[in-house]
Amino acid sequence: MNTYSLKARIYPVILSLLPILIIGILFSIEFQNYYQSIGSLGLSTVLFFLFSQLGRDRGKKKEKQLWKEWQGSPTTQLFRFSNDTIDPTTKKAYHDKMNSFVLSSIIPSIKEEEKSPETCDQIYKSWTKFLISKTRDTSKFNLLFSENINYGFRRNAYGLKPFAIIVILLLYFAIWASNYLTNDGFNFTDKSTLVSQFILIIPLIFWVFVVNKEWIKIPAFAYAERLLETINEIKNV
Q1: Considering the entire predicted model, what is its pTM?
Q2: pLDDT value of residue 184
Q3: Which residue in 219, 85, 90 sits closest to 151, CA to CA?
Q4: 43 has pLDDT over 60
Q5: Cα separation of 21 and 148, whole Å?
Q6: SS3 string of 83-125?
Q7: What long-range pairs does 225-229 form, CB within 8 A, spacing at least 24?
């Protein structure tokens, strides 16, 4: 398993399932033994891989929706003359190099963007694909790789958000159901129940209030900026 798969795909899954592990350990000392038994059969590895794929797929779907809401992917936006994140001098230098790397029917400019914004965006998308293909060396472009992991982790976590919240709510229900059955009625002073409720509040707050579109936007644009910076490191082809 490579570093990207571990940190960007598996870690979000672990984060979403973490409440189950914590509550399981809290309520049963033997829970770890059960988990080790499952792990010895290789089932935990299979499940993590399955959920990582689901997280990736949902993350990619969410990505398309986000780019539509943001009016373009981060790299496309940064390439636009209408976007002022990058200063005009640096942007012109980027455009000059990209025009020499990737030949197209038109040369994007302020006037061309105003006249044919969709056509220019298609060119910017082509530039982005070119840059990605030229920056796959993770040792040479380590900073870019790190930003890509950060973005992938948050995007996939956002894709798993509904699942993670459902897991926590089901745990709440299971804990109170266990409380009721164990005590022949609800015992609102039971320490295990109270502690577990407090523990579950923390991840619930995280998933509801922290994992959102703005949380993804920060590393998304950071990655886009690092990707454009690699233009100066790519030689003519």
Answers
A1: 0.84
A2: 78
A3: 219
A4: no
A5: 28
A6: CCCCCHHHHHHHHHHHHHHCCCCCCCCHHHHHHCHHHHHHHHH
A7: 225/78, 225/85, 225/86, 226/143, 226/144, 226/147, 227/75, 227/128, 227/131, 227/132, 227/135, 227/144, 228/75, 228/78, 228/79, 228/86, 228/94, 228/131
72 contacts 128 by C-beta, under 8 angstroms: no
Answer whether residue 80 is part of any domain: no
Residue type, 67: W
Domain-located, residue 36: yes
Q: What is the dihedral of CA 17, 18, 22, 25, to 10 degrees?
A: 60
Query: What's the structural domain count of the chain?
Result: 1
Range 193-227 burial, b when 16+ CB lie within 10 A, else e: beebeeebeebbeebeeebeeeebeebbbbbbebb
Q: Is residue 62 part of a domain?
A: yes
Domain that residue 24 falls in? 3-71+138-232
Residues in the chain, how many?
237
Residue with tokens 């499952």: 38
End-to-end CA distance of the chain: 32
* Predicted pLDDT of residue 216: 96
- pLDDT for 188-207, tens place per residue? 788 778 888 888 899 999 99
Nearest partner of 131 among 62, 223, 220, judged by Cα: 223
Q: Which residues of 146-176 are buried (b: 16+ CB within 10 A; e: fewer)?
A: bbbbbbbbbbbbbbbbebbbebbeebbeebb
Average pLDDT value over all residues in the chain:
85
